[in-house]
Amino acid sequence: MSKALDALFPTSRITRDASDLAHWGSDRTTAYQAAPSAVVFPETLDEVVALVRLANAEGFALVPSGGRTGLSGGAVAERGEVVVSFDRMNRILGFDAAERLARCQAGVVTGALQAFAEERGLFYPVDFASSGSSQIGGNIATNAGGIRVIRYGLTRDWIAGLTVVTGAGDVLRCNNGLVKNATGYDFRHLFIGSEGTLGLVVEAEVRLANPPGPQRVMVLGCPAFDALFQSLSAFQQHVTLSAFEFFSDLALTKVRTARDLPPPLRDACPFYALLEFDESALDAASSAFERCLEQGCVADGVLSQSDAQAARLWALREGISESLAPQTPYKNDLSVRLSDMPRFLEAADALISQAYPEFEVCWYGHIGDGNLHLNILKPPGWSEQAFLERCHRVSPELFRLVAEHGGSISAEHGVGLLKRDFLGYSRSPEEVALMRALKTVFDPNGVMNPGKLLG
Ligand code: 2HG
Ligand code: ZN
Predict the structure, then answer these.
(1) CA dist 419 to 6, 332, 354, 399, 414, Å?
(2) Ligand 1 pocket mutation pick from 69, 248, 321, 327 by most atoms within 8 angstroms of CB
(3) How far is the CA of 358 from the centre of ligand 2 (A)?
């Protein structure tokens, strides 16, 4: 493999340096050992095609690598694979103002696309804490969600065209930025969320939106899980929400300690909701707040008076994941329909407190769209392996509950390696068999991100 691979890339764009292999061969998970054989940095579509064809001819595997901010091990290379980094394909190649379409290479950083939109008086609404390093190709591969899904949907909803190289080395130009295209199977949507198992996303046409008006942020203190839902529906009756997030008091304590932040409210509450909405809806939001206070589903609240204060309130939610990282959290990223959420939460809470009496458990997430992040923290003194095994033993019970409530074991982080063995809790045997059959069609020699998603 080495000679032919070295012939494809100049020495400045291929590395086997141990620290580079460790860096580009991993994502934000810590349970896996990065062990790729090389990292390459293509700059053109032709180079990507040549690489995939070589991988087929010589039988080596490829692991696509974007901003490596994933939390499920989807971008981990642990078996001598060649990592394909898109860091050198990070340009926005064109912009159609009339159609509000930006043509992006896969390595464009999400935050750079947001800034590009803003400079043109537009808005790219998919947003999350890691948008400063995650790349659009990775967002597409995992159908990234984040904090504004309640109003703007997922990455899938903003992708108007995709150029991909299949695992067989063929170039597909999917949908070409069209709004309407009724010509059969839409391969674009197969590649979105495929976690690099069918081929490589090389370019995307991304739709941009009109920006919303000025936003306000509120943090509410709620006495119980149920109260979060009562407040959500009280607000949603009259206010278009741009975000409805939540976090538990333990999650708040962790982020406040890590970042030395003041509490949002005078007295602590078991749960907090963070809402964002158009300033023009302020009166309706204030009335909803009053009603929530009367009904007792909200104990107290704070409203941002400036953009700086709004950013400080957002930091309480967006900083949680990073603040937990030193405690090697075992991550769960679950979703159920909102109508099933109160019953699911009651059952999940009972299971979690009984299954993990000695572990700290942080609840937070995008509860307005049905997505919960449940982080179980490794106590000091436990080895990471023992901790992971313990959590994996409990996971089937939790995922059985998720399945009983019609939910998903991975709402937005993807399946990768971490949730691979549990896919059957969310997808039927028939669906998994069809996924495997599709994988064979697009990637006949199994060179694309083997071992991820389907195992
Ligand atoms: C978030 O919503 C991210 O903060 C990360 O999706 C969640 O770390 C997590 O579990
Ligand atoms: Zn999230």
Answers:
(1) 35, 9, 22, 10, 8
(2) 321
(3) 25
Mean pLDDT, rounded, of the chain: 97
Any bridge partners for residue 38, and if so which? 82
- How much is the pLDDT for 455? 85
pLDDT score of 249 more than 90: yes
Global pTM exceeds 0.85 = yes
- Please name the residue whose Cα sits nearest to atom 5 of ligand 1: 321
pLDDT tens sequence across 98-145: 999 999 999 999 999 999 999 999 999 999 999 999 999 999 999 999
If you take atom 4 of ligand 1, which residue's CA is the nearest one? 321
Three-state secondary-structure class, residue 205:
strand
Does 200 contact ligand 1 (Cβ within 6 A)? no
The token pair at 419 is 């949730």
Helix, strand, coil share (%) of the chain residues, nearest 5: 40, 20, 35
Residue whose CA lies nearest to ligand 1 atom number 6: 146
Contact 201, 137 (CB under 8 A): yes
The verdict on the CB of residue 321 being under 6 Å from ligand 1 is yes
pLDDT at 283: 98
362 lines ligand 1 (CB under 6 A): no
